[in-house]
Write a structure and sequence with these properties.
About 40% of the residues lie in helices and about 15% in strands. By secondary structure, it is of the alpha+beta class. The strands form 8 sheets. A 6-stranded mixed beta sheet has the order 8-7-6-3-9-10, sandwiched between helices. The protein has a 3-stranded antiparallel beta sheet with strand order 13-16-17. Helix 1 packs across helix 3, helix 8 packs parallel to helix 9 and helix 14 packs antiparallel against helix 15.
Amino acid sequence: MRVRQRQKQLCACVFRGTLKSQQPASLLHTSRASSNSILSTLLQTAKTKDPITTQWHGQPTHEERPDLVRKNEVTPGITKEEYETRRQNLVSALPKGSTAFVFSSGTFFVSPHVFHGFRQNSDFYYLTGWNEPDSVAVIQQNSHASRGYTLTMFVNPKDPEKEVWEGPRNGISAAVSMFGADEAWPIDEFSRRAADLVARIGDKPADEGYVYADLDSHNDMWVSPQCKELKRLLKRDNLGARIRRLSPAVQKLRLIKSDAEVSLMREAGRVSGMAFTEIIRESAPGMNESMLQSVFEHACKRTLVDKASSSSSSGGTAVDRSALTRPAYVPVFASGEHALCMHYVLNSAPMRGGDLVLVDAGAEYASYASDITRTFPVNGRFTDAQRDLYSAVLSVQQQMISLCCVDSGYSLNEIHRRSTQAMVTELKQIGFHASARDIDDRLYPHHISHYLGMDVHDTVDMSRSQLLKKNMVVTVEPGIYVPYDDRFPKAFQGMGIRIEDDIVVGQSIDGIQNLTALAPKTVEDIEACAAARQTK
């Protein structure tokens, strides 16, 4: 009993930075390079004696989940080298001597003691891959460091008493050995060490001591206690003039997707596309919108289970990646006139035969989003009026997708302007006498596109007026929402139609990729998909 207690004390000392040498971060740095034997022994003892769970880390790792994380990957689909490149690119984009503070998301509560599922801040995840709350990454330009910068992380340490309630944590050592930090400290150390760091920044020349951090809430994002503490320290030392927002610099990097990111987004699109096929088949008069939403979300999970591999008769091992997906956003399942509301999310009404249902939904896969909209008849067959209006919107969408290449020389704003012009032409052919102003103000009041990536509305600080670049990923989503207004043909009143796909910008038209092409889209494909249910 005394031996076990002593082992626990030693491990706690390592994590809290209270070893006799007072240099736990240096030990951790050494462990990244050469695996310090004392630290390794302590960690091994703690790990093998862990009384809670055989899962040691707080997120999937290759050691524990090789089915989800391949060798040399930090997170599913993204390697150590890619995370290193991301940090190198950020450091290169900042002025000499800059320090970047990146803050994680926190835990949010629905009601006392009842929390939401955790979702990491996208900038933090992009630079570290770390998927736990209450964390800070400090990236300092350093010409003397082998990488040209140093990465220090402040995270929650391993804590059996907490983990028995909350589940396993990655712990401090993993920040160094797996996530590329030079030093790692308990999050409780941030205030003291940040004070020292701010003081050193203040000693630098003004043009070499910029602080990049998102200290205030932008775009409704949460501000952590550590962020507030840094803001207080900078104000105390009169360094306000040196503060710059970090997120725009990171977003500029995130705007252009790597091949690995495109692959993850393609899988997100595949999963969602298969789920759309399922809901078109299952849709029926009398079904509630919420039930159709449940079918979609279950189909996304089921698509990531390899049934052949999991068959007991074949003796195979189940390949189940369903843990890597969740809804990318609160979806829209809007039947009938509910589709006139852009973001109808009540999803609670029974669907009626003869109506259309507009579904705007997408799965996230390995922290990358898809965003798809399809509009289809509840009973599986378009009426003549529905077919005409749907075909007009589809024509506009197909025309605009063809412009999503570098060679076109267009920005998203220019593509939107052209979509409005094309919509006027298409609607005129089916009896509308609508001006471009009518289109913008009433019939088509939203933009045709936004950037897509780790967030559904990705890189929101990046202008849609900039020219398209290769490997941007954008949505193309024209829509028509016809109100009960006699200025517009009665046959179309009460209809809302939107069609949306996720597009990888190519150099030329031949290089354009549609990541969500699996979701049925033409009138013929939708009706054929719906008919398949009746022949089961």
